[in-house]
């Protein structure tokens, strides 16, 4: 057994949340969340603004404590075994994590040091991580000269340099143009193919979730309201509509499933405020 292996970890799910609850004041941002991410899958956590996705992810990454319930990562309890969990994770947060005043290589090298990549392996691992996201040629340029898509790929390289078994990405393609979005997903897919790494991603893009995720969970008001492969969720809504005798012009999309699950709550929480927040975040990221 390696030092990073918990008893039974070979069979353990990549992530297992049971009854996870996290409150800000008297508001339960995460409210009894049960969630399982299987080893090797790309799992999409979807939900409107304020659903509790980022809070749940912060608990899984050990950035927030778990006040109620339990979170295990490859069998390790985040409460008791925080450092072991951190060694297994790569995390790309919503906020900018690259330093514009450093080159791409320096940014990735910084993460290699922080995440305990041994000195002997460091240079090689940094080069490999940059190559994996197609930044080999730009590695020695200042990150300040990178496009938004390149910055996101650089952040991906930062998270990959420690060879994580679980990569967690919080809205990885927000603010990117369609070509850059595809690039980010293709690089995630290629690394996963090569390493068998598990991927947990939050996104507001139903199209991307449909295309790139093996399974998705729709989260609303702190809990999972629907779970399955995108095809299962779409087919389930189609069947419910047929059973209810509803006319259907076209097969349901994942967006339709999302609206069906979140219902009127979407209008309360999303609407204009969501647009403003998203736009501001985007401007901060790519500006
Ligand atoms: N630091 C904080 N202090 C107080 N309330 C917070 C804090 N962070 C989040 N919340 C609240 O907790 C709830 C869940 O927020 P969270 O950011 O987890 O949602 P989310 O699903 O990730 O949303 P988004 O899609 O906008 O990122 C929201 O009601 C939010 O306002």
What does this structure look like?
The protein is α/β, with parallel strands linked by helices. The chain has a single domain (15-286), classed as Rossmann fold (3-Layer(aba) Sandwich), CATH 3.40.50. The chain is 43% helix and 21% strand. It has helices spanning 53-60, 82-88, 104-114, 119-132, 148-160, 178-195, 206-212, 230-243, 254-262, 265-269, 271-286, and strands at 15-24, 27-37, 42-46, 68-73, 76-77, 89-92, 166-170, 198-203, 215-220, 223-228. The strands form two sheets. A six-stranded mixed beta sheet has the order 6-7-8-3-9-10, sandwiched between helices. It has a four-stranded antiparallel beta sheet with strand order 2-1-4-5, covered by helices on one side. β4 and β5 (76-77) form a beta hairpin. α3 packs across α4 (119-132), α3 (104-114) packs parallel to α5 (148-160) and α5 (148-160) runs parallel beside α6. The protein is globular, with a radius of gyration of 19 Å. The N and C termini lie far apart (46 Å). Adenosine-5'-triphosphate (ATP) binds next to α1.
Indicate the topology.
Elements (H helix, E strand, L loop, with lengths): L14 E10 L2 E11 L4 E5 L6 H8 L7 E6 L2 E2 L4 H7 E4 L11 H11 L4 H14 L15 H13 L5 E5 L7 H18 L2 E6 L2 H7 L2 E6 L2 E6 L1 H14 L10 H9 L2 H5 L1 H16 L1
Parallel strand pairs: 3-8, 3-9, 6-7, 7-8
Antiparallel strand pairs: 1-2, 1-4, 4-5, 9-10
Helix pairs in contact: 3-4, 3-5, 4-5, 5-6, 8-9
Protein name: ABC transporter ATP-binding protein
Organism: Streptomyces iakyrus
GO molecular function: ATP binding
């Amino acid at each position: 057994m390696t030092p990073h292996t918990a008893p039974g970890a070979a069979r353990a799910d990549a992530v297992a949340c049971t009854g996870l609850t996290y409150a800000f004041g008297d508001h339960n941002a995460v409210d009894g969340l049960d969630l399982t991410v299987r080893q090797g899958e790309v799992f999409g956590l979807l939900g409107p603004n304020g659903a509790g996705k980022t809070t749940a992810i912060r608990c899984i990454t050990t950035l927030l404590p778990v006040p109620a319930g339990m979170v295990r990562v490859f069998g390790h309890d985040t409460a008791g075994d925080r450092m072991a969990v951190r060694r297994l994770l790569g995390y790309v947060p919503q906020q900018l994590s690259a330093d514009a005043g450093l080159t791409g290589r320096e940014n990735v090298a910084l993460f290699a040091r922080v995440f305990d990549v041994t000195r002997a392996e460091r240079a090689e691992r940094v080069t490999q991580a940059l190559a994996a996201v197609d930044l080999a040629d730009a590695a020695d340029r200042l990150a300040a000269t990178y496009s938004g898509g390149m910055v996101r790929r650089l952040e991906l390289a930062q998270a990959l340099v420690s060879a994580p078994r679980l990569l967690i990405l919080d809205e990885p393609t927000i603010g990117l143009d369609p070509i850059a979005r595809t690039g980010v997903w293709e690089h995630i897919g290629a690394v996963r193919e090569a390493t068998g790494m598990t991927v947990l991603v939050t996104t507001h893009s139903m199209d991307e979730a449909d295309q790139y995720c093996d399974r998705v969970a729709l989260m609303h008001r702190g809990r999972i309201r629907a779970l399955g492969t995108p095809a299962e969720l779409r087919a389930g809504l189609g069947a419910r509509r047929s059973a209810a005798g509803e006319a259907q012009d076209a097969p349901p999309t994942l967006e339709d499933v999302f609206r069906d699950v979140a219902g009127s709550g979407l209008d309360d929480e999303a609407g204009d405020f969501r647009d403003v927040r998203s736009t501001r975040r985007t401007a901060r990221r790519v500006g």
